[in-house]
Specification:
Blueprint lengths: L6 E3 L6 E3 H6 L15 H8 L6 E2 L15 H12 L5 E8 L2 E8 L10 H16 L4 E8 L6 H20 L4 E10 L12 E4 L10 H5 L12 H6 L5 E2 L5 H12 L1
Parallel strand pairs: 5-6, 6-7, 7-8, 8-9
Antiparallel strand pairs: 1-2, 3-4, 4-5
Helix pairs in contact: 4-5
The chain binds zinc ion (ZN).
Zinc ion binds next to loops.
């Protein structure tokens, strides 16, 4: 069996990064501050009060409705890899003592792509927040809509967007946290419909991925589809370092309490 490596080369600055220091630093490169993906459970531990999370919709999980080649095997592989039953954690938690509906994606589960289960979990989470007059936090990470679920995945965009609109109409407060990478239908629906939209530094956020865009346009602007560029153009409101994300959430939740 391979030994777990003690260090790796940072993909951003090429520094030799010690794994222990990296994990202690919340999976942020200690040399260049590059934010690497976290699992849904790691984010949950980072953001919510200890032992306060009550998971909902635990029995929702993806099925291979279209009999797409190798999809069941990929689902099984990623269930084993992530320890999640489905690709999103959702439920109720306390954040700084404020009761909050929360949903968190996991990029380790079929690239965080959005299928029927994420759409349904996001929608139920929003509706639960609305019915119980709770604020809402969604942490997005998405490789786009899930091709293995075809139209069943695409329709989640309309469903989640409609739930966001209803929640907003009834005075709900939605904080959208966007992490690297967030692409495709998630960006075009619930991710972009927060009252406050915050991103981690360097997060790649867009609709079509950079390779698809580059095939249509020779030169891409600097920082194309990066959080820093999107803040400058008003698409997101604020960039927040991972170490300060919980504090920001508590500050924002205190405004609407
Ligand atoms: Zn680095």
């Amino acid at each position: 069996m391979d030994k777990t490596p003690e260090s790796f080369t940072c993909r951003n600055c090429s520094a030799d990064v010690k794994v222990k220091a990296f994990v202690k630093n919340l999976k942020v490169c200690p040399e260049c501050d590059a934010h690497y993906p976290m699992s849904a459970h790691e984010r949950l531990n980072l953001l919510v009060d200890k032992d306060s999370f009550q998971e909902t919709d635990v029995n929702l999980y993806s099925i291979d409705a279209l009999e797409f080649p190798e999809y069941p095997e990929k689902l099984e592989r990623d269930i084993a890899k992530t320890g999640l039953r489905s690709e999103m954690l959702s439920g109720i938690a306390e954040v700084g003592g404020y009761s909050t509906a929360i949903a968190i994606g996991d990029v380790g589960f079929i690239g965080g792509t959005c299928g029927a289960v994420i759409g349904e979990k996001v929608t139920r989470c929003i509706e639960h927040a609305g019915k119980n007059s709770l604020p809402l936090v969604i942490v997005s990470v998405s490789g786009g809509m899930r091709m293995q679920e075809g139209t069943l995945a695409l329709m989640q965009m309309a469903k989640t967007a409609a739930a966001c609109a209803e929640y907003a109409k009834n005075g709900g407060f939605y904080i959208s946290i966007v992490t690297d990478p967030t692409f495709g239908g998630a960006t075009a629906s619930y991710t972009s419909l927060g009252d406050v939209i915050v991103a981690e530094p360097g997060a790649r956020i867009g609709f079509a991925g950079p390779l698809a865009v580059a095939s249509l346009q020779e030169e891409l602007p600097e920082n194309f589809q990066k959080a820093e560029s999107l803040v400058a153009h008003g698409f997101i409101d604020h960039i927040v370092h991972r170490t300060r994300m919980r504090k920001l959430l508590i500050d924002l939740l205190s405004f609407v309490d």
